[in-house]
Automatic annotation (TrEMBL):
Membrane topology field: Multi-pass membrane protein
Keywords of the record: Cell membrane, Membrane, Transmembrane, Transmembrane helix
Protein's UniProt keywords contain Protease: no
UniProt protein name: SURF1-like protein
Cellular compartment(s): Cell membrane; Membrane
One matching Pfam family: SURF1
PROSITE patterns: SURF1 (PS50895)
Family affiliation: Belongs to the SURF1 family.
Top-level division of the source organism's lineage: Bacteria
Transmembrane residue ranges: 192-214
InterPro entries found in the cross-reference section: Surf1/Shy1, Surf1/Surf4
Main location (coarse class): membrane
Natural source organism: Ruegeria haliotis
CDD domains: SURF1
Length: 225
């Protein structure tokens, strides 16, 4: 009886833990879906002019339409595009309304790194963003070859002499640059997979617990004789 009681308590405790993890991931899934829906709504909202005062929290993903001038000088941020391969995001200074901000013009292939690109007067539509792409594993920029490994807005702004504000273009600013607009597709949402995993493990745990309880209650050959 002690063995059966131990197996029962151990089995129920393990099942409770696994089920609670599955429920937690289900709740996280609902939360993440609401966050993504909010981001999508903000991205696709009505465009406005560039606000005078900006907040990285309140104005993240704000749709903006601005007229101005793309200035000389650009930074290349290494990136890989699915089904295309490696290349660079082109980050350039953009003067609009008496101020200069950063503009993410989009993607170029690696061989186009040294090609000339259109600059000058331009109307740009896009979204404001302050990407969080820096961690302890991010390499330092290769200044000599102008290769950066993340869109570190303050560092990019210091290098190009702009405000720490990044406008990611939706409209095309050069025939050879492919815009990479802000979207929710790059935001991971693996909570459904995690929930299914935990609930699957809970099912296996329950089955194994039932099996061991059955084996413990079944009479041995010596007892049967």
């Amino acid at each position: 009886m002690r063995r059966i009681l131990f197996l029962l308590i151990f089995g129920i405790a393990g099942l409770a833990v696994l089920l609670s993890l599955g429920i937690w991931q289900s709740q996280r899934l609902s939360w993440k879906e609401a966050v993504l829906a909010d981001i999508e709504a903000r991205i696709s909202g009505e465009t406005v002019g560039l606000p005078d005062q900006l907040s990285p929290e309140d104005d993240r993903y704000l749709p903006v339409s601005a007229s101005g001038e793309i200035l000389p000088g650009e930074i290349h941020v290494l990136v890989s595009v699915k089904k295309v391969g490696p290349g660079y995001r082109v980050i350039a200074p953009f003067r609009t309304g008496g101020r200069t901000i950063l503009i993410d013009r989009g993607f170029i292939r690696t061989p186009d790194k040294l090609s000339d690109r259109q600059i000058g007067a331009m109307d740009v539509t896009g979204n404001l963003h302050w990407p969080d792409e820096i961690d302890s594993y991010t390499p330092e920029p290769d200044i000599d070859d102008n290769i950066w490994f993340a869109r570190d807005v303050p560092a990019l702004a210091a290098k190009l002499g702009t405000e720490p504000v990044l406008l990611i273009a939706r409209s095309q600013t050069d025939p050879d640059i492919t815009p990479l607009p802000v979207s929710v597709t790059g935001i991971p949402n693996d909570h459904l997979q995690y929930a299914v995993t935990w609930f699957g493990l809970a099912l296996v745990w329950a089955a194994m617990t039932g099996y061991f309880l059955w084996r413990s209650r079944a009479p041995s050959e010596s007892e049967a004789q």
